[in-house]
Amino acid sequence: MTLFKLTRIIRTSIYCIGIILLGCQRNADPNNTLTLATTTSTENSGLLDHILPDFEQNFDSKIEVIAVGTGQAIALGKSGNADVLLVHAPDLENTFVNQGYGTKRYQVMYNDFIIVGPKSDPASIRGIKDASRAMTKIYKQNAPWASRGDESGTHMKENYLWSQVNITPKSADNWYYSLGQGMGATLQFANETDSYTLTDRATYLMQADILPYLTIMVGGDHIRNNLDQNLYNLYSIIPINPNKHQYINHDLALQFTNWFTSTNTQTHIANFGKEKLGQPIFYTFVR
Fold first, then answer.
1. Domain extent for 167
2. How distant, in Å, are the alpha carbons of 8, 177, 178, 229 from that of 2?
3. CA distances from 63 to 51, 57, 86, 173, 276 (A)
4. What is the CATH number of the domain that holds 123?
5. Are 133 and 273 in a shared domain?
6. pTM, whole model, 2 decimals?
7. What is the pLDDT of residues 70-100, one digit of tens each?
8. What is the C-alpha separation between 273 and 215, in angstroms, rounded?
């Protein structure tokens, strides 16, 4: 058993135990505690640490963050173990709301996906504009590919890109690593194994200093240079429907949504990363 397979088993077990404990404690949550289930990219990029203290201070509240893949975050919403979601898988989100689990979907920010890989570029994909075309070359070369493999929004986007060229990688393939890990851990694995991977630009840019063997292959050095529309990455907030579960803190979830979509917070998000990187890592809808 490989270290990453063992890590995946341990991580899944901890996740399941955590959900059980969280479910037992929901009825003890005070009115000023908000449980936010979100994708790992918002945490790995540092965005949440950057903006959430403002909400906690201004609303005299505490936010409990559960950073998992989008698929797991949505499952937490369905089971009533979160008050609000911040996720990035539009099809799943629309289904979630249409089924009555969420009250409304609010589009709050966006960035893009990129493909990164070893600087030696064994599949010769550097500079290709179309992600699926680049992935086809990786497949034909059997060049190592690290997949999150966790039903996250990024994993779903990866599967969509493979489907565009009628390729279905299998975890048994000796070039394809399905990790069951978050974005940060997947990037670290790719860095250590000379693998290609799909990542949101935000997480990669914020962690690039500790990923010395990786570089951007597809998507360019700025979102304006990313010509593949399939790599657009939209994030939305969804308050959980309080009619589905007894202990949903819906009032605070609505306050959080209004705060997140306010001009002040949207401007704060849009400025995040500029000083360090010379470019935003999330873009908002406030101009």
1. 113-231
2. 10, 11, 12, 36
3. 11, 11, 13, 41, 26
4. 3.40.190.10
5. no
6. 0.87
7. 999 999 999 999 999 999 999 999 999 999 9
8. 18
Q: Report the C-alpha dihedral over residues 24, 28, 30, 34, rounded to 10 degrees.
A: 0
Q: Are 61 and 12 found together in one domain?
A: yes
DSSP string, 195-220: -BEEEEHHHHHHHGGG-TTEEEEES-
119 and 53 together in one domain:
no
Report DSSP letters for 136-187, one per residue: HHHHHHT--EEE--SS-HHHHHHHHHHHTTT----TTSTTEEE----HHHHH
Query: Would you state the structure tokens that stand for residue 221, as one six-digit string?
Result: 């050095």
Burial letters 99-118, b for 16+ CB under 10 A, else e = eebbbebbebbbbbbbbbbb
If one counts every other C-beta atom within 10 angstroms of the C-beta of residue 140, the result is 10
Tens digits of residue pLDDT in 151-202 = 999 999 999 999 999 999 998 999 999 999 999 999 999 999 999 999 999 9
Please tell me what DSSP assigns to residue 241.
P
Closest CA to 147 of 193, 100, 104: 193
Alpha carbon 165 to its chain centroid, in Å, reads 24
Q: Do 201 and 171 reside in the same domain of the chain?
A: yes
Instruction: Find the farthest-apart pair of alpha carbons in the chain and give their distance in angstroms, rounded.
Output: 55
Total structural domains within the chain? 2
Q: What's the token pair of residue 37? A: 């289930």
Residues 277 and 249 in one domain: yes
